[in-house]
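Look at one record.

>
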Amino acid sequence: MDENNVNELLKYAKALLVLQVQTLNKSEDQPKPEILLARAGLSACDIAEIVGKNPAAVAKAIRRATKGAA
């Protein structure tokens, strides 16, 4: 698979992820999207870009959730 195909797939995967996060944001009984994305291995900066928040706020939410789970 060449680099152009990989970049195209990444673009569509990101779009699907954004749509899913928007759906989660509307649901009150689901965990925060930031937490789910962090558990999936994304960085706070990547998550902030997807959910439209400040990276520091995302990192703080992740820390709080980690403390609450411990």
User: Anything to note?
Assistant: The first helix runs from residue 3 to 26. The CA atoms of residues 22 and 28 lie 12 Å apart. The mean pLDDT is 84.
